[in-house]
Structures are given as C-alpha cells and as structure tokens.
Amino acid sequence: MKIRQALSILFISLFVLSCSKSDEAEEVVAGVPSAYAAAKLTNDGFTANWTRVYHADKYLVDVSTKADFSTFLPNYNALSVTALTVDISGLTAGVSYYYRVRAVRGALISAFSNVITAEILSTGPEPTTALKDVANFNVGMIVRSSKLTGQTSDIILREFDNITSEYEMKMDKMYPSNGTYDFVAVDKIVKYATDNNLNLHGHALIWHNATPDWVTKFSGTNAEFETMVKGYITTVVTRYKGKIKSWDVVNEAVEDGSNTLRNSIFRQKMGDDYIKKCYQWARDADPACKLFYNDYNFASNAGKRAAIFKIADDLKVNNLIDGLGAQMHISYKSPAASDIQAVVNGTVSRNLLMHFSELDIQANPDNNMTTLTPERAIEQKNKYKEVVKIFNAIPKANQYALTVWGLRDSESWLISFWGHADWPLMYNDDYSAKKAHTGFLEGLK
Ligand code: G3I
C-alpha cells in the first residue's frame, strides 16, 4: 500500500508540476482508480468496472489468468478504454481471471488499481465428490427424526460422518413436563447413528431458548430446582452413555453486548456457578463423554470471545470441559478470516477440541436480493472455502468436527428467523450441489 501511496503522490506532484499557470485552478487527477468486483458473470465472460479518476483521459485495463500478470490475455495488456467499464468475453468456463486498471492523463499514468478475481461460471453441475471422502476430519450435518429417509438420508450417509440433532435433544423436547421424559425422537436419531456408524453430537442440554415453560416458571425452591436439573442431566447423559459421545452441556450462556453471564433461569435459581455444576453432573454421568461449551458470535465479537474463553478456563480448572463449539452463523462477507482464526488459536492453545458446530453462510445478509446471483454464489463459495481451509489447518488432535446447519437452502432456520429470502447452505431444493459445496471441497485441498 505504501508504494501505491508514494506512486500516487509522485503522480500527482509530476502532474501539478507539468501544469501551466492557467491549469492551476484545475483539480489534479484524484489518483488511482478502484476496481469493483466482477459483474455480469457468465460462462464465457464478465464485466469489469472501476471508479472515475478526475481529469483522466482514459484507462488502461489488464486481464490475465495469472494473479501476478506475468502473462496477459490477448488484447488485454493495457487495453485503452475511455469509459469506466469494459465487457470481457470469449473466456473459459470454470477458470479464474484477474483484472486491474490504471488512469491516464496526458503523459502521466497512475499506479495500478487493486486486483480483482473473476471466476468464470463453470458450465454444468457442480462436482458431487462426497465431502467425507476428501476431509481428514468429521464433517457434520444436522438431522430431524422426521427426515431420516429418502434423498436427505442418502446425502447424509454419502457425505457426512457426524450428525447433530437440530432440536430434538433439547430440554423443551426431551423433558416436556416435570418428571416426564420424551425420548422417542432421540431414540430414533440414536438408532440411525448407530445403524449407520455416524458420530452423534448431543445438542444441547441447557439452553435458555429451549427451556420448557414448567422450568422457566418453576414453582419449587432453588434447592429443588437444582435437584431437578441434576436429575435431568444425569438421566439424559446416562441413558445415552456410549452412544452420544459428546454433548453441548451449556449453550449460549454469554449475553451479547455486556459479554457477561446471561441471566437465565438456571443462573437465577442456581447461582453463577450453575455452569460448573451442570458440567460436573454430565462428567459424573459419563466420564468418557466429551463435554463442549457452544456459542455464537464467537468470531465476530472479540469481547464475547474473551468471555467464552473465560468460561472454558474456569471449567478446565476441574477438567470439566473438552471442547468449544463456535456456531459460525456467518455471512459471505464477515467475519474476517483473522477473527475466525482467533477462535481456533484460543481453543487450540487451551488444548481443547474445536467444533465449528452450526455453519451456515448468509448470501443475502442485507436483504437486497430476491435471487442468488452467480456473483454472490461465488462469493459465498469462497467464504465456505475460507472457513474450511481454516478448520482443515487445525492440528488433528484438536479437530472435533465441522458441522453445517442444514442441507437444502429452503430448510434453513435463517429463512424464518430473518423473514426474508436467503440461500445459506450447500444444496439446492432439488438436492443438487451448489457452488457452496464446491467451495467446501476446495477448502479441503
Ligand atoms: O417439526 C416440528 C413440527 O412438526 C411441529 O408442528 C412444529 C410446532 O411444534 O414444531 C416443529 O419443530 C420445530 C423445529 O424448529 C422445526 O421447525 C421446533 O418446534 C422448534 O423448536 C425448532 O427450532 C429450532 C431452534 O434451534 C430451537 O430449538 C431450529 O430448528 C434450530 O435450527 C435452532 O437451532 C439453534 C441451535 O440449536 C443453537 N444455535 C442457534 C440455532 C438457531 O436458532
């Protein structure tokens, strides 16, 4: 960046010096153009656009298949253009091209703009290579007991080796009334996992958003409340001992904004050390079970990240935690890779298992799209690739699983949660693989 700034200053200085007195009043060239993301992507071309530079006579456009521009596309080595855009065609489907631009004013030429990558749409279907056949770690998918058949199951069994119950292993479903458990759905999921040799992750014993009304309105004393919670955790973990080999014991205990402990009914009735008590009861019920703490905005919010690591550190003192779950409900444009890496670094430095536990990648976070454009599909693909690359680089001993929170776009919780169109997952409604799936595969390379 410094070189570009120096060149821009030189360019402007030379330009000012070259101006006659009469030009003094004229604005100097405002510097280097900025290139926009490739537009109108097709399977044989794209449109390049860039910002206006005042008083520029024209622009010089370079296009290459090499990021270092060591070679140029024929006719695109400093192609002279007077407009702020140029359509580039005759390109090869599935190939990535690079473009950059300079401004020209008389004899003066600006520095190069930023370099844009344009990935020309591949023709035909995306590769259907099974994710688990390429991944060196467990690839996870969520399940519902009502959807363990048909094409959903076909894809799960072909592509995944880890499953998480989307909602049926939560307190509001397993413990609908005091003293009455309902394990029908869980038993079905456990059988499916056992029959198909799938690793089943338990999610989530304690979560303020999935607590049955009779618990949030508990009529007994705090001591009776604590006894009830201990009984619930002990009953569930014991029942599935050896079948559910990991649990999110507590989910989302950190309040957004304050980054302090959420004032859930569990905290109100059992005190701040409710978390430690719950993990101790789970540990006592099944010492071999891997105990996780799971939360969202783990990457995007540094303050929350610190609070989560504090919970982990407190639990580690008594060996009550084995892993951390970063939910990873993210978008195509955030959080930055460096923030995701910070989650991994803090987890690995504590020698804990890392679970990217609920990955989905919003393509329409700003609700300004009615269809998934090719350009946005590629940006989403590249974010899947980025996340998978980061997870793939985690030391094997610290990789638990990378779980995607849903199969087909239309099944995503995000649609109803945000109330607008989005395409956050890896499969179309016809069960065909999207570019997002290709991005996952590319991240594994
Ligand atoms: O499928 C049944 C339907 O048969 C029934 O008629 C209907 C009314 O009772 O319920 C339907 O199940 C609902 C299910 O979503 C499917 O739509 C459950 O009641 C409802 O509780 C469930 O919501 C789940 C939510 O957690 C609360 O448990 C979402 O599926 C699930 O995606 C969401 O996942 C959470 C993670 O566990 C934690 N991180 C945030 C994430 C999103 O909120």
Written account of the structure:
Residues 15-27 have low confidence and may be disordered. Helices cover 33% and strands 20% of the residues. It is elongated, with a radius of gyration of 27 Å. It folds into two domains: 46-119, Immunoglobulin-like; 131-443, TIM Barrel, CATH 3.20.20.80. The protein contains 14 helices and 16 strands. The chain is an alpha/beta fold and 445 residues long. The two termini are 30 Å apart. The structure holds ligand G3I. Residues 166-167, 170, 210, 251, 296, 327, 358, 413 line the site of ligand G3I. Ligand G3I is lined by residues 166-167, 170, 210, 251, 296, 327, 358, 413.
Task: Give a summary of the structure in a few sentences.
This protein is α/β, with parallel strands linked by helices and 445 residues long. The chain has helices spanning 2-18, 131-134, 150-159, 171-174, 184-195, 213-216, 222-239, 265-270, 274-285, 302-316, 337-349, 374-392, 413-418, 435-443, and strands spanning 46-49, 58-64, 79-81, 85-88, 96-105, 108-109, 116-119, 138-143, 162-165, 199-207, 246-251, 290-295, 323-326, 329-331, 353-362, 399-404.
Task: Furnish the topology, listing elements before pairings.
Layout: H1 2-18, E1 46-49, E2 58-64, E3 79-81, E4 85-88, E5 96-105, E6 108-109, E7 116-119, H2 131-134, E8 138-143, H3 150-159, E9 162-165, H4 171-174, H5 184-195, E10 199-207, H6 213-216, H7 222-239, E11 246-251, H8 265-270, H9 274-285, E12 290-295, H10 302-316, E13 323-326, E14 329-331, H11 337-349, E15 353-362, H12 374-392, E16 399-404, H13 413-418, H14 435-443
Helix pairs in contact: 7-9, 11-12, 12-14
The protein binds ligand G3I.
